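Q: I'm teaching a short session on how sequence maps to structure, and I want students to see two examples side by side rather than one. Could you give me a first protein with its sequence written out and its structure tokens following it? Keep the formatting plain so it prints cleanly on a handout.
A: Of course. Example one:
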Amino acid sequence: MDWTSVQLRSLVELRRRGTVTAAAAALGYTAGAISQQLSALERAAGVPLLRRVGRRVELTDAGLAFAGHAQQILDIEAAATAALERSAGRVAGELQMALFATAAAEILPVMLARVAHRHPDLVVRSRELVVDDVYDVVASGTVDLAVGLEYPDVPIRRDPSLRVMPLHRERFALAAPSGSLPPGPVSLAGTGAPLGWILPPENTHYGLAIRTVCRRAGIEPVLRHEVVDTAVSLALVEAGIGLSTVTGLMLRLRPSRFDVLPLVETFERHIVAVVRSSAEHRPNVAAVLQVLRELQLEPVGGQGGQKLGGVDEVLEVGDSGVQRG
């Protein structure tokens, strides 16, 4: 039987996510491309793996059984790749990487420069993703490594095949229009009318995390604008539209003028590296992980950024242009 890794991943992701559309999103393909991969795999297997139910497709019993073996084949393939890289004794070839937007803007350029200097034969190819999707693309094998986020207040459900390594911790502060609140530490319980909130949707991890912290403080944030783009949120705060929460890394996305006030409540996020457990010790992956561990992000405006691990070097960034409370 002749099949490809992409075909096997398509089958595994269809079992995991339930729809071709969701599988395609996790793998970074169109739904049509995944349908073609599944059809080719079915022809190679010689037995029906899919059946149509209304407008959807679902796995047959044979498809379900094969999906379990497909995951084992992919794991063996990853282990074989790691063994070949280790036997070669050098860091070379390609590494596929995913990052969320803020990391892509602030971490990626420095990281790529250091990787190129230390390992000139290694080519890193990156893609920017919505932060909530980075775990999925690593688990599916679409990328080798990702930089993502975790919120202690709303832990993300982890795939058991993943290894998550903390790199940096940031504490959130309150972003408020200039002069709208007294200077100094502020409690979320003291924020409210007439200012409303500029927040991401509640079905995102960040959106759920800030609402969880607000509710723990005894308030339900009054939503004025639902925004997923951090730079847009900062622009709206600067324009006096409402309140939001920010970290030092977020403040570097857009030079802005507004007050940044420390929060009495603890609200944090952790920047993490995500790899498949089977790929963690591959020379290429280990080399990039080492560089990521060495990057220390300087806090902006007393944001309380803190590295979670040993550090030898500092990631230098420019001034954010933010007015601090």
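Q: Perfect. Now a second example for contrast.
A: Example two:
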Amino acid sequence: MSQELGPGDLASLRLFVDTVRLGSLSAAARAQRITQPSASEALRRLERRLGIELVVRTPRGSRPTPDGARLAEHAERVLAELDGFLAEARSLRTAGRRHVRIAASYTNAEYLLPPVIARYRAVRPEVVVSLAVANSAAVITRVAERTADLGFVEDPEPHPDLATRTVATDELVVVVAPGHPWARVTAPLPAAELTGTPLLLREPDSGTRATYERAAHRAGRTVATPLGVMTSTEALKTAVRAGLGATLVSRLAVAAELVAGELAEVPVAGLDLRRELRAVWRPAHAHDLTAEFLAALRS
């Protein structure tokens, strides 16, 4: 005999309370949607656990013993408290799911996501979408540590706890000020010349920097020590326009400047600078709004 109840005994406790309330084990079984033999066995098991006879079975129904009547009152209060606890938890969980926490790399946050967020909010105005901007490594960390529901990065390294999906394709382009010598080249710049030239670059943990370094490595090249390191694409573009040097950035980031002639694109031979923009999330903790937001990307 044991007086400790396990998680499986909660159903038996509900059955006991219903039996007392309805005055019939068969009626309680119907209320719990189980067979009467299963109900009889569950009630006997609860009595064995407690070491107390709870119910007397008669041809006219079931009635509680004096001890059973006392315990039924306690059990009703316990189950009411438990039901209230579960209802509050559901309410909090539902309220939490009216908020989608997104972390995104600079390229995704500045050029890919704004129209998607606007499209999503047009059909789900009650949902709050928050967007935190960080480099790709920090985005991965936020999603893994569950401080973001969904992340957007460039070509992420595999992570054992995260699922990933390609949402767009992109490529890096080399850009210079119109007065830079490379703006006047008539043939693609050799990979060796590009990788051997100190450039203005993003910080090492950024997806843009990682894409360039991986492309150089695949081509058997080593990237020169940067001329300067900046933590945002806008800062790089401003520096290039001022004539400080050349940089590599997403084509999405310089489309307007290339059309306006504020920057010049330098074609490069021998380097594959294409990349995938990807969503990352924790499958074990994803909720409906995560899937809805991903669907808005596809549309």
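Q: What should students look for in example two?
A: Point them to this: The CA atoms of residues 103 and 139 lie 6 Å apart. Also worth mentioning: The two ends are 61 Å apart (CA to CA).
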